[in-house]
Write a structure and sequence with these properties.
Chain B: Keywords: Cell membrane, Membrane, Transmembrane, Transmembrane helix, Transport. The complex is a heterodimer. Chain A is an all-alpha fold. Chain A contains 15 helices and no strands. Chain A has 2 domains: 53 residues; 220 residues, MetI-like fold, CATH 1.10.3720. Chain B has one domain: Orthogonal Bundle (MetI-like fold), CATH 1.10.3720.10. The chains are: A mainly alpha, B mainly alpha.
């Protein structure tokens, strides 16, 4: 099969491979594959690009020519979304809640996982499977009772309620992932530290936690994105007081009001405001985000 | 020197367990109990009615309609997503063939991966609202593109005949990139010699994908399958924000049905919980079934 062998050698540049039949076939395949890759890339980028471009257009321009470019960079659309539609406020609200919920999830998840991974005691398996079993249950099942649990605890329409609920529902995966991670860490370091007189708590905070950093980062990114993107829980637990809403709720309200007011530019600006920071974080921490999320997949 | 392990075990374990039992375990348990009551509203009494809710459910055409839509999603979204994901991952991993029978990634592969993966990072809310505008019957991106070619455009989400497929397309669109990266990572663990040997034997790309890549990646594909199946049984946010189940219930899914029953047009908490219980058993059986059916001999290469 030396002919095939040789054709593969020059195949990546399809333009120059049209002189021999076998080569041409592969060249076409290559152009095709590049074509498909590009097509999907365009399919991914185009809606987002369109959103950004439209956020600078007037409503008249959007209605007249959806594919056209804006006549000028109209930043007042962004201002209308940021202050008029309170997207700025919701943005900050989400930031506060997610900061709280991710910190709480990580603290509780890491401590519980550490105990499961490193300590032997009666009933350990039962408690561990109680946590991990939560992975099988859809949030939907708990929705109605959760609503009343939160309301009876006086946490309805409160950020603290959201923070606690987010953290509680993230524990199964966080505990599962981090327990596995703590188990992979070498025991010799811990033993050496114990011999040197290091207490249990100090050992955890000064030795084990720093060693578990890669795992902690992955699972923190995973949790950050899932909390930031949460819609169902705030929709149910944060129904009243729209000054406390999360960003997702604000965007939804913006979309609903757009239906009446016809202010498309403001909606696109609002969506762009929500996308930009995510895009920035993604570009900066691309590798960690991808490994964090794909690790999350393999639960 | 050893202070005993119990202070640490208790301080580390008790707060998470309390939080978890209070907000997760107890609602799940209550859900089963509530599903056997006729609880109607915020303050009304809840009387035990046994399995009456489940009987009503069995004869509820709206629920069946929603389940039918979930079933179609279950049949198509995982297959389409996995095929596209495998296809692009293969292209990226082996698209460029340089050197003597060497197998190399396509040029710009990293950039493609970055772009493809991005929708996964976006909130489903943003995806739903953005695509709702893309599908807008007047000034949507898609409508004007079709008009530009000189064809009459459908009303997309406004037409019961097309709305469901439009939502399905967005589901696939938002998931493919993730699986390209996931499969790509799994492929990079496969020794290159295997592919080089296959190429030397003159196998076509399709054969390579079907006979070599797929069996080697089977574990990952199976995980993807389970996850996408669970996704297909949900689909709540996309549907609620894009169509709210309409027009004429053509895009309704079981999650929307449940939400609507409890927090939307009605407050039938007992009945909604019964739908939740059904969803739980459906999800569980789909997950178990896909793992059972998909079980194969694990291939180890070292």
């Amino acid at each position: 099969m030396t002919t095939l062998d040789r054709t593969t050698a020059t195949a990546p540049t399809p333009v120059t491979t049209g002189d021999r039949p076998v080569r041409r076939e592969l060249g076409v395949a290559n152009t095709l594959s590049h074509g498909f890759l590009l097509l999907w890339g365009l399919l991914t980028v185009l809606p987002l690009l369109w959103m950004f471009i439209s956020s600078f257009k007037t409503n008249g321009e959007i209605l007249a020519d959806p594919w056209g470019l804006p006549g000028a960079l109209r930043l007042d659309n962004w201002a209308r979304a940021w202050t008029g539609a309170h997207i700025g406020r919701y943005f900050v609200n989400s930031l506060v809640v997610v900061a709280g919920s991710v910190s709480l999830t990580m603290l509780m998840g890491a401590t519980a996982a550490y105990v499961f991974a490193r300590y032997e005691f009666r009933g350990r398996q039962v408690v561990y499977y109680l946590f991990v079993g939560g992975l099988m249950f859809p949030v939907f099942l708990a929705l109605v009772p959760l609503f009343f649990v939160v309301r009876n605890a006086g946490l309805f329409n409160s950020w603290l309620g959201l923070i606690l609920v987010y953290a509680a529902y993230s524990l199964p995966f966080t505990v599962f992932f981090l327990t596995a991670f703590f188990r992979t860490l070498p025991t010799s370091v811990a033993e050496a530290a114990m011999v040197d007189g290091c207490g249990h708590f100090r050992l955890f905070f000064r030795v084990m936690l720093p060693m578990a950093r890669p795992g902690l980062i992955s699972v923190a990114i995973f949790n950050f994105l899932s909390h930031w993107n949460q819609f169902l829980l705030p929709q149910v637990l944060m129904q009243g007081d729209d000054s406390k809403w999360m960003l997702a709720q604000g965007l939804f309200a913006l979309s609903v009001s757009q239906g009446y007011a016809g202010d498309y530019a403001r909606l696109f600006a609002g969506l762009s405001i929500a996308v930009l920071p995510v895009l920035a974080v993604y570009v900066a921490f691309q590798r960690q985000v991808q490994t964090g999320l794909t690790a999350g997949q393999l639960k | 020197m050893k202070h005993g392990k119990w202070p640490l075990i208790l301080t580390f374990l008790v707060p998470p367990v309390l939080l978890y039992v209070f907000f997760v375990v107890s609602p799940y348990l209550q859900a089963f109990q509530i599903s056997t009551t006729d609880w109607l509203g915020y303050s009304a009494d809840a009387n035990p009615v046994g399995l009456a809710n489940f009987k009503t459910l069995w004869h509820d055409d709206y629920v069946w309609n929603a389940l039918k839509n979930n079933a179609i999603l279950l049949g198509l979204v995982p297959v389409l997503t996995i095929i596209l994901g495998l296809f692009f991952a293969t292209m990226l991993a082996m698209g460029g063939r340089k050197g003597r029978a060497g197998v190399t990634g396509v040029r710009g592969g990293a950039l493609y991966r970055t772009v493809y993966f991005f929708p996964q990072v976006l909130s489903v809310v943003i995806i739903a609202l953005l695509w709702k505008e893309v599908y807008h019957p007047n000034q949507g991106l898609l409508t004007s593109a079709v008009h530009a070619v000189g064809l009459p455009a459908p009303t997309w989400l406004g037409d019961p005949a097309t709305a469901f497929w439009c939502v399905l397309a967005v589901m696939v669109w938002s998931n493919v990139g993730f699986y390209v990266v996931l499969f790509g990572a799994a492929m990079s663990a496969v020794p290159k010699e295997i592919y080089e040997a296959v190429l030397l034997d003159g196998a076509s790309r399709f054969t390579t994908l079907r006979r070599v890549t797929l069996p080697l990646l089977w574990d990952t594909v199976q995980v993807a399958w389970v996850y996408l199946a669970i996704f297909a049984l949900d689909g709540f946010i996309l549907v609620q924000l894009m169509t709210n189940g309409g027009p004429n219930f053509s895009t309704d899914v079981i999650g929307v049905r449940m939400y609507d029953t409890a927090f939307g047009s009605e407050t039938k908490f007992g009945y909604a919980s019964a739908i939740g219980v059904v969803m739980f058993f459906l999800t569980l059986s789909v997950a178990v079934l896909s793992l059972r059916i998909g079980r194969r001999e694990r291939i180890e290469y070292s």
